[in-house]
Design a protein that fits this description.
Helices cover 38% and strands 22% of the residues. By secondary structure, the chain is an alpha+beta fold. The chain folds into four domains: 31 residues; 186 residues, Distorted Sandwich (Acetylcholine Binding Protein, Chain: A), CATH 2.70.170; 138 residues, Methane Monooxygenase Hydroxylase, Chain G, domain 1, CATH 1.20.58; 80 residues, no CATH class. Strands 1, 2, 4, 5, 7 and 8 form a six-stranded mixed beta sheet that branches. A hairpin with a 2-residue loop joins strand 12 and strand 13. Helix 3 runs antiparallel to helix 4, helix 3 packs parallel to helix 5 and helix 5 runs antiparallel to helix 6. The radius of gyration is 38 Å and the shape is elongated.
Length: 520
């Protein structure tokens, strides 16, 4: 009786309308989330995640944000749909879903969800299908950059996907049958960053680490999709490090002024110090805003400290040089040279330390990233060896191949038979492929002999269709009889078109005369 009542309600249009109103008035959080997995009679779900990142754009150093366009596929076995056809009409609003959301998104421009019912090779035995949830995402994500070694740093750009079901009901794992994909050709920040090919997807936190006996807040599964980039440091080395060092060398030029001329020395040192400070303030917007010193900040502050030491040295030595005692003035000159040597030694120590830090950091960074790339390639090789190449075949993809050297086998390069205005030369006939099917251009020819084939049919590299513009017709030198027959057919077609055009003009002039007489 209960089933009959439910069927009657479904057949009733008023009941359907009320159900639609109920679905439209649900909040986003409670839309289909009131049914737990246990209530539906199923066990804990393992959701497999596969990611395809199409583009990484707008890596902002100041805001520590980046923009990504990606597609994430989550699939899980659904025993409640066992035996159902993948073309069956299913109301996905009334089905269980993993409640996946973006955890570190700042601005979401697009977040489309699409559900599909699919049968994979592993589903042939139990006949239990997989529900595939494909999420097309375009959003800006927040990431706390690690900038201690800036500008010699590398960053892990993380996209956090979290489920609103706790660990006791759901677990997010990597899809070990399909490879993750990262598009490198659409990377728009290549002038400042270098994008590595590895796309690392892994869950954060294991259910075994959670002690469910203790009374603690529920913990939720988290999955990270990580892209690794390293900064191209050349801009900062030339525009920050080299410029600040050049200002330090200019500051040493104030020692060429006699130490007795205290005013000129101090004015020159103050002007150079102000130039360094103004340049530092001018370049500040291009630097990340963090609460600690980066490697570049430490170098800049060391150079500014040397400028301050130069200014203090000029003031002290100048004061001593104003003494009326000749011996004191002579000692002041010697002390001036000693201070110059000390300041140069301090700057050399700073440079040696920075160069050693530069080399060590670069070697450590490159070694780590190369190991990550190697591990990613090994993981993909294991997937291919275990499950084969798992990817969707695109019918429109094709590969251009050079024409064979044998003239008997040379033909127009095919584009899987999909391109219009594509001409195939065959020994039996010449046809043109279009949206209306194959149309014979010329009648079949007798098969040519191998001796005179090269003389009758001259085909060069220009005769092949351009892969980018599949509109060029092939140039074929045909026998005179065939060319004459084609010319007669072309002339007859032109004459027919001329008669039709003249008849249309005559009908049009008669209509014009009739309209003129009606107006009169």
């Amino acid at each position: 009786m209960a089933m009959e009542a439910i069927e009657a309600m479904r057949a009733n249009p008023i009941a359907k309308l009320l159900t639609q109103i109920e679905q439209n008035t649900r909040s986003e959080r409670t839309a289909v989330l009131y049914k737990t997995r246990q209530e539906l009679g199923a066990e804990k779900v393992k959701v497999k995640i596969k990611a395809n990142i199409y583009a990484i754009t707008d890596i902002d150093n100041v805001k520590q944000e980046f923009t990504a366009n990606l597609a994430v596929r989550a699939r899980w076995k659904e025993p409640l749909m066992q035996g159902m056809s993948k073309t069956a009409e299913i109301d996905w609003d009334d089905q269980w879903n993993p409640r996946l959301e973006l955890d570190n998104s700042v601005v979401i421009r697009n977040f489309d969800r699409k559900y599909e019912l699919k049968y994979f090779k592993s589903d042939k035995e139990d006949k239990i299908p997989h529900v595939c949830l494909t999420m097309n995402i375009s959003a800006t994500f927040k990431e706390m950059f690690e900038l201690d070694e800036f500008p010699l740093d590398y960053q892990a750009l993380n996209i956090w996907i979290i489920s609103e079901w706790p660990f006791s009901q759901l677990e997010l794992i990597k899809d070990d049958e399909y490879k993750d994909h990262l598009s490198l050709c659409t990377f728009t920040e290549s002038k400042e960053w270098y994008l590595y090919p590895q796309l690392i997807g892994e869950p954060v936190g294991e259910p075994q680490e959670i002690d469910e006996t203790e009374e603690k807040p529920e913990q939720y599964p988290l999955y990270t999709i990580t892209v690794q980039v390293k900064r191209l440091h050349q801009f900062y080395m030339w525009n920050h490090v080299f410029f600040m060092f050049a200002l330090f060398l200019i500051g040493l030029s104030t020692f060429s002024i006699p130490y007795t001329d205290v005013g000129s020395r101090i004015i020159g040192a103050v002007l150079i110090l102000l130039c360094a400070l103004m340049y530092r303030l001018h370049m500040q917007p291009s630097l990340p805003i963090v609460a600690y010193w980066t490697a570049l900040d430490k170098f800049n502050m060391a150079v500014l400290l040397c400028h301050i030491l130069i200014l203090m040295e000029h003031a002290v030595i100048g004061k001593i040089a104003q003494s009326p005692t000749i011996s004191v003035v002579t000692q002041a000159g010697q002390a001036d040279y000693a201070c110059l040597g000390a300041i140069v030694c301090i700057m050399m120590i700073i440079l040696i330390y920075f160069i050693a830090f530069f080399v060590q950091t670069l070697m450590k960074r490159n070694k780590f990233l190369e190991e990550e790339t190697k591990n990613f390639e090994e993981t993909n090789a294991e997937i291919e060896a275990k499950h084969g190449v798992k990817k969707d075949k695109d019918k429109n993809q094709w590969k251009y191949e050079a024409p064979p050297s044998d003239p008997m086998k040379r033909r127009v390069h095919p584009i899987n038979g999909e391109s219009p205005r594509l001409i195939h030369y065959q020994r039996e006939e010449i046809t043109r492929k279009s949206g209306r099917g194959q149309q014979a251009l010329l009648p079949p020819l007798p098969p040519p002999s191998a001796a005179n084939l090269a003389a009758n049919i001259r085909m060069t590299r220009e005769d092949y269709i351009n892969p980018k513009e599949a509109t060029h017709e092939m140039k074929i030198a045909m026998p005179p009889a065939v060319l004459e027959q084609a010319g007669r057919r072309s002339r007859s077609t032109s004459q027919t078109r001329g008669r039709i055009s003249r008849s249309r003009n005559r009908v049009g002039s008669e209509q014009t005369q009739t309209e003129t007489s009606d107006e009169e």
